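Worked example 2:
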Amino acid sequence: MSPQPQAGTPPNTLDVALEYARKSLPVFPCSPLDKKPLTPHGFKDATTDEAQIRAWWGGWPNAMIAAPTGPASGVWALDPDVDPVKQLDGIAVLNQLVAQHGPLPQTLTSITPRGGKHLFFAWDPNVDIRNSESKVGPGIDVRGNGGYVILPPSRNGTGGAYQWDPNSPRTFAPAPPWLIMLAKAKKPLRPRHERPRCRCSAEQRDELAALHHSITSSAATSSLSGTVRPSVLAVLRLITSSNLVGCRTGSSAGLAPLRMRPA
């Protein structure tokens, strides 16, 4: 998947696109201005057919080479982006995740014009990974089933080039379980220090602590009837009608987890 031009020879995009196709990787052309597909059906038009590829790049000689991710290519890509304008540093966030969860295996990697990376992992037919943006972490996108990536030696509209990382292997490693878990997560996982903090006042925290004690005491509910005591209703009213959004028991208020139990 990573054909290399001879030393001193500028890579020809058409030749490289054909080389990808010979290695059974379907490709299609994308605009160097916005990375959008130039074909009517986008990544669904990707092919290994030589005649079609020659026709595409004959009409768009400056087109970038793109490949679908997922079952069509047998790979998915992790895309830690670097964007100073949006104040995103996906590389730094990925390093934090690695420090927290464990190392990533050596796998084929490309370097994007802005200094980000595309890490290519082997596709597991038993794990359906979809596209996502900043789900794994801020500035880290995923290109999976239904997505595509730009391949080297494509150049964008300003001349920035995609390049293969010379230090990466030319093989696709399986993604580690922790990364698969994050890529499949339904909601973004934020570091603990970014979780919502209690926005209630000290007086409200004291009131909540007192009600929490009441609701968890042996007198909070009827023995077996399940009847809700007034104290229970009070704590519900406090939480739903006041400014306690984001205030969680077991946080700075030092409260034990809230559990309903019979006397």
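The two ends are 66 Å apart (CA to CA). The chain is about 25% helix and 15% strand.
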